[in-house]
Every structure is written in C-alpha cells, then in structure tokens.
Automatic annotation (TrEMBL), chains A, B:
<dbReference type="GO" id="GO:1901605">
    <property type="term" value="P:alpha-amino acid metabolic process"/>
</dbReference>
<dbReference type="InterPro" id="IPR004839">
    <property type="entry name" value="Aminotransferase_I/II_large"/>
</dbReference>
<dbReference type="InterPro" id="IPR015424">
    <property type="entry name" value="PyrdxlP-dep_Trfase"/>
</dbReference>
<dbReference type="GO" id="GO:0030170">
    <property type="term" value="F:pyridoxal phosphate binding"/>
</dbReference>
<keyword id="KW-0808">Transferase</keyword>
<dbReference type="InterPro" id="IPR050859">
    <property type="entry name" value="Class-I_PLP-dep_aminotransf"/>
</dbReference>
<dbReference type="InterPro" id="IPR015422">
    <property type="entry name" value="PyrdxlP-dep_Trfase_small"/>
</dbReference>
<dbReference type="GO" id="GO:0017000">
    <property type="term" value="P:antibiotic biosynthetic process"/>
</dbReference>
<feature type="domain" description="Aminotransferase class I/classII large">
    <location>
        <begin position="103"/>
        <end position="444"/>
    </location>
</feature>
<protein>
    <recommendedName>
        <fullName>Aminotransferase class I/classII large domain-containing protein</fullName>
    </recommendedName>
</protein>
<dbReference type="GO" id="GO:0008483">
    <property type="term" value="F:transaminase activity"/>
</dbReference>
<dbReference type="InterPro" id="IPR015421">
    <property type="entry name" value="PyrdxlP-dep_Trfase_major"/>
</dbReference>
<dbReference type="Pfam" id="PF00155">
    <property type="entry name" value="Aminotran_1_2"/>
</dbReference>
<keyword id="KW-0032">Aminotransferase</keyword>
<keyword id="KW-0663">Pyridoxal phosphate</keyword>
<keyword id="KW-0045">Antibiotic biosynthesis</keyword>
Length: 453, 453
C-alpha cells in the first residue's frame, strides 16, 4: 500500500474503534449514561478493594450481630459539647498565646489556610510529650487523616516503573489502597509474632536489587499493628533502623495504636538518628475520628535544601489544598486542654481497651482453650487479636457467622489482598462491653467448634 | 560469556547502581538525610507547579502590597460564632428531622462516617434551589473541597497511557495539579471571550483520535471562569453538551463562581439530558473556605449497575476515608439556616463582588482607558478581570510591581503552565475595599504606562 492508502486504512481503523467506544458508552436510548468499569483506573477492579467493599456490604447487612469487626474507637465518652469546648480552647490559645486579634483568629478558622496546616507547633508538642519524638514544626504536614499522609508519601516516592514499596503481610488495607492509587507495587515482607522480620526485609531488598527494582520505603506498624495486634520488641526496632539506614530506604512508621498498651516501647521515629523514618500520625483513635486529622513528620533534608515535608506539602496543595482549619482546631483544643498529652486525654479509653483485651483473651481461653488446632496471639495492647483455626475462613464463613450465629469478625485474607491468611480471623475489641465480649466469643466458639476435625 | 558469567556481571552492575543510589541518598556523614527531588514523582518538578510555588513565595514576601492576586472570598462578614451556630443547626436537624437520639447525633459527628458523606441530601436540596439541578443524593460524593473531587474524577478516568483530558487554555491551576498527580496529559482547547470554543473542542477530539488517544473528559468552567472571568453564552452551552454527547466524553463542570453574577445562565448540569456532565461543586466561596467541603455529582450509570459516584467513593475511601463530618456539619448548618439557598446566604457578598467588579472596571477605564494596546475584558460576575498589555508580563514584572509600586496581581502565564499568556495578567477583586481598588488600579497604571511603546 502507498502511504496515503495506509493513512486512510489507519483512519478507518481509528474511526471504527472510536465508534465501538461510543456505543459502549451509550445505552440503547442513545443516552451516554453508561460507563464501563473496565475502562476506568485499575484500582477499582483490584481484588483487594472489591473484597473490602464486599466485606463492608456484608457487615451492613447484619446490623444486629455482635460486631467484632469494626476498628472504631470507643464511643461512650463522646459528647457533642466537646466540639464547642475544643474550638473555643483553640481560639483562646490564638488570642492569648499567639496574640491574634479577633479578625485574625476568625480568618484562621474561616479562610483558606496554609497547606502544611495551622497546628504543626501543637502537634510537635504532643509528639514530644507522648512519644519522645523531637519534631520541628516545619517538618510536620497536617493531613486529612493518616490516610492522606500515606497517599502523599507514596505519590511522592513513586517516580517510575522501577519503584516498589515493601510492607508486612498481612498489612493495613489503607496502605494497600494508597499503593493502588499511586500504581505502586507492594512487595510483602514476612511478619511473625514479633512484627515485621528484618531478616526477610534484607532478603527482599536483595531480591528487588536483582530484579532492577528500586525500593523506596518499607511500611511498618511497630505497635499493636492492624490487623494482627502484634508489636516489635526493642532489638528488632534497632535492627530495622539499621537495615533501613544501611540500604538507604525510608521506613514509613504508622503508629495509630501506640498509646493503647500496658507497656510502651519507643517509636522508630524517636530512635531514628539518620532521618530514615517518616512518621505517619493519626488522631482518629486518640483525638476524634470525625475531625479527620492526621499528619506526617518528614524531616528528611532534600539535596537542594528544604525538607521532604515541603515536597509532601506541594502535592497536598494539588490534592486537598489544606486540611480544614476547623477540624484542626478541634484536635488542637483537645491537645491544649490535656497538656498536650493524649495518653492523659485517653486514660479512660486506654483502661477500657486493656480491660476488653484481657476479657477477650480470657473468653477465648474458656470457650476455645481445649480445642486442638485453634490458637490466638496475646497482644498487650491495641484493638486486635488474631485467631487461627484449622479450616478455611472466607467471606462465606463470615456470612454464616452473621446469619446463623449473630457474630461478625474480619477474615484475615482481606489484609493479604486475598492472597493468604485463609485460616485466620481478626477480632476487634474496641467498641464492646464486657457482656458483648462474653456473648460474642461464645457465639464464635459455637461457629468454630462444629468445624473442627 | 556463558550464562553464569553473564549473571555475575549483571549482579555486579546492579550492586554498583545500588551503591551509587545509596551514596546519593546519604550525606557526607553517612546519614541518610538527603533525598533528591529528581528521584521523586515528576509532578514535583513540573514547571506549572514550581512556578505556582514561586508565585506564592513572591506574594508572601510583600504582605503590605495591595493584593489583586488572591482569589479568596470576602472576609468582613466572617464571625467565629457562626461556626457554633451552624454546628448546632445541623445537630438540631438530625434530632428534629432525622429523629436521631443524642447518641446517634453525637456518633454522626464524632465517629468515622460513610465515605460518600453525611450531607448529600442537603446538598441535593441546595442544588435544586440555587442551580435548578435535579441530583439524587446517592449521586453526590462529598469531598475535601472541589480539589479532591477533581483528583478523584481524574484518577478514576485515567486508566492507561492512551487517556487524555481536554481543558481550556488558560485553566485553573488546581485542575493542572490534579492532572499532574494522576499523570494525565492535559490537551488545551482554545478559549475566547465566550469561554471554551466548542469548534476547537471538535478539532481536538479529532486530533486525539488520529493520535490513538482516548479523550475521557473535558474540564470546563462556564460561569466567570478562574482565571479569565469569562462566561459561556447559552447557545455555546447547548453546543458543548451536543459535542460531548455525540462523542461520548464527559464534561467536568466546575462552578465555583456561578452565584456571583448579575445574570445567571443555567449550569451545564441543569441542561444535561444525556448524563454527560459530572458537576464539581465547591463551598469554598459560597459556604466557608475553612470547612474544606466540596462535592461531585456523578449520576452516570455504570454498565454493571450502580453509579459513577460509587466508583469515585471507592477511591475516596483509599484517599481520605471520608470528609470530616464536623466540617460537613458546618456547611449543612449554613444551608439549613438559609432555606438551602446560598444565593440568599450570600446576598451581601454578591452585592460587594458586583460593586467591586464595577469599581475595578471603572478605575481601569479612568486609569488606562486612553492607552493604546491595553485592554481588559468585562465580566458580569465572579472574582476576576483579565488585562492585556503590549509587553511581557512575567514574574520579574510582578516582583517590580510589588517592590516599586506596592501592588500584586497574577501573571496569566501561570494558568498556561508557563506556555503562553505572557501579555496578560489576572486581577482579583474579591477581597478589596473601594479605596484599595482605586489605589490598586492607580498603582497598576503607574506600572503599565511607562512600559507602553
């Protein structure tokens, strides 16, 4: 064919393809109301996300079942008046400590605010008080929950096809989600009763090298991880920092549950001497979920000066512009009224989570202690317990549990992206009363026992 | 070389590359505190974003200059007590109209909420009242400002390398930002005094087809666009809808300034009969910037049932989980206390913006009316006026204006991603008093006149 002929055929092909696409887009009335999910971003059809959606639908279907599934904070101390009290406390702080006149106070809450947030200094005080972390306020980016912080860090680090993220398996679904949104492959690192395994991390780094991949970071939850409930001991924390430093990778430390333990080990960030750790902070469990305020501490220096936090902030400006200063003010007020200590602010909640954990472990022992093949871990804090059973735990079993036994849990495979964990389930203890724990575990035992070999 | 030899050389190469990367990562003390922006996501070094950052720094440097640069809403009617009033109004609504008991009201504001938001029904009432848009509440996704809605729509639509977005040139920088975060190429469509040109849109669609690209959507601001201030007339709106429908592309309608005009033309969404329009809603100018609440109306049916809104919501769950219900409550309270009419709620502000626009146009006429080569458009609403001059308007000129004349504006090239608009500047009128307008335009004239040929 000559060139003009070739072009003609090519145009015809393009026109045909376009026509097919338009037909797919339109419905039989010629209305272009149909979109096909197959033509949308791959994250929407990823098994990890669709399975999570199915799970939520299933849980919604059985609202009267005892829910040992939801990882939400305890609600009995919620009081609507506290929102007003916290807002007032922050405004008073601006007037008294920051010497703002009324117009500036009002503008701070009403108007667009600075992208990095308006309460970084108060968050830094909280980190010093509760976590022994020395964070310069300019290294703090206030975000719409820790979830936005995760997205920003992954979006910043994923520059090209070579870039991968390491994370323990099983892992928090929010991390999986942020990775999907940024097209970041997540390579699993083995996780055991002591949390992420630094030796396997070394192996995975080597494997990535051999495959020409660039590992940008490793996500880790050293304290009472979601979903397993496990924590890392102190030597493992030091070893993990050593591995990160000597391999030039960042550690993304998620510490949403660190406060809720009987004994507290130092966070990675408080031990970090080499700028290896980006700290992902959440106020959802310790402040107020409805404020949707979290943050990142990113004090890494950029080669051209400035901080990694400023790079995150640049992307935040394109994503959410800034975190609502009203929402920030609510969290700030809570910090101000509790001498910057969320440990102090949550004294009652911590006691309840500790009690619920103990009651759950006791009830498991009474209900399932004699059953061969059934075991569970014994976290010393946090919201979660992992139960292992000698049969398959899938969403079908969950539906049976809900329908026939009136109890809900989370099949662990959801935290493996559907690629493992089929003999485990996650129990959440944060929202329950002693009576509900007793009854919930009894119902769970009634589900499990007939299925034992 | 035999195979094992080859593998050895390959490993050596990988080890060397890794070593170089680690050295780049570490500073001379062996501390891994240096990150290089060249190794991060490309958006961070995109000229559009770095120029916007430079612009903001420049503006911050001259806080006493008269700012005709900031697109922020008028502040004089802000009152901190309104936050409490609005929160109370929403809680009363939940008790009275939704029959919630106190525990459920409290949980609605304090706890994690549904991803799509808790005030979709009230937003639907507002859209019916102010925009004559008939939106089913389930088609509304409440977002962290319209910015998050833009990101979610682009992230959903950008499935692969072929997918491109069309947008008028010049365009809102937030759109450019959301496109950068999703690696979406933005193809410019010609824009004139009547807004985006539907004929050029047809040409661009043809061009995209020929290049094997898939145009997913066209972004458009039919009312008082940022940055130009221009609006589309009614025939162009109908023509644009026809083009979108017959080509099976979505229109992303941004209507942040629609309320602020002397005459109101129907929004694209209110004219949409084919499900071609995704409406991007902002409460930043009409509600309260500090709430950071916006929304998308995405009532397109998916081929497998469900709504496009549900796809956006899935991604939102991985990005920000949900929009703060406290922030949503503030906006809801304002809607409830104003019979769902933001036109009514903003009566005083609308009068001020209209006055400021008239005063600005009058002052331009007086100060620059006789100058050859100097012209400006005459928007009938919104926040912005475009001034055209016969010399180059770059950031250097802005700095001169700030330093020597004490006046700030926005060089238009920032809205072309630095690829055009070098003879125009954007004036913003929203934050000014009559005195500041008079003086600001006089200072602008003093900058411009000596530079005329």
């Amino acid at each position: 064919m000559d060139n003009s002929r070739k072009r003609g055929v090519h145009r015809l092909f393009l026109t045909l393809r376009r026509t097919v696409e338009i037909l797919v887009f339109m419905d039989s009335n010629g209305l272009s109301t149909h979109l096909n999910v197959e033509t949308l971003h791959g994250s929407l059809t990823d098994p990890a996300i669709s399975s999570m959606n199915l799970l939520n639908e299933l849980i919604d279907e059985y609202p009267v079942a005892i829910s040992m599934a939801a990882g939400r904070p305890y609600e009995e101390f919620f009081d609507i008046r506290l929102i007003h009290t916290y807002l007032d406390a922050y405004c008073d702080h601006l007037r008294r400590d920051r010497k703002m006149d009324e117009a500036v106070v009002t503008r701070t809450l009403f108007q667009y605010g600075t992208t990095k947030g308006v309460i970084a200094d108060l968050i830094a005080k909280n980190l010093a008080e509760d976590e022994n972390i020395d964070a310069a306020p300019e290294s703090v980016v206030v975000t719409v929950g820790a979830q936005e912080a995760m997205f920003l860090v992954l979006r910043t680090l994923r520059a090209g096809e070579r870039d991968v993220l390491l994370a323990p398996a099983p892992t928090y679904v929010g991390l999986t989600g942020a990775a999907l949104l940024t097209d970041t492959p997540v390579w699993p690192v083995r996780s055991n009763e002591n949390g992420i395994d630094p030796d396997d991390l070394v192996l995975q780094l080597k494997r990535a090298d051999e495959q020409g991949k660039r590992v940008r970071a490793c996500y880790v939850t050293p304290n009472f991880a979601n979903p397993t409930g496990t924590s890392m001991d102190l030597p493992s924390r030091h070893r993990l920092l050593d591995v990160a430093e000597s391999n030039g990778i960042l550690l993304l430390e998620d510490n949403a549950y660190g406060l809720f333990g009987s004994e507290r080990l130092p966070s990675l960030k408080s031990l970090d001497r080499s700028g290896s750790v980006v700290y992902l902070g959440s106020f959802a469990k310790t402040g107020m979920p409805g404020a949707r305020v979290g943050f990142a501490v990113a004090d890494q220096r950029m080669a051209d000066g400035g901080l990694f936090a400023d790079q995150l902030s640049k992307l935040k400006g394109m994503l959410t512009v800034n975190t609502s200063p009203i929402a920030q003010a609510v969290i700030a007020g809570k910090l101000l009224l509790n001498d910057f200590s969320l440990t102090k602010a949550n004294a009652r909640e911590i006691a309840i989570y500790q009690r619920n954990l103990r009651l759950t472990l006791d009830a498991l022992e009474r209900g399932l202690g004699s059953c061969e093949g059934v075991s569970w871990n014994t976290p010393t804090g946090g919201f979660f317990v992992t139960v292992t059973v000698p049969f398959v735990v899938d969403d079908e079993l969950l539906e049976t549990a809900a329908r026939e036994h009136g109890v809900l849990f989370t099949p662990m495979h959801h935290f493996y992206g559907g690629k493992g964990g089929f003999h485990q389930l996650r129990l959440s203890i944060s929202l329950l009363t002693p009576e509900l724990i007793e009854e919930g575990v009894a119902r769970l035992a009634a589900l499990i026992k007939p299925r034992l070999p």
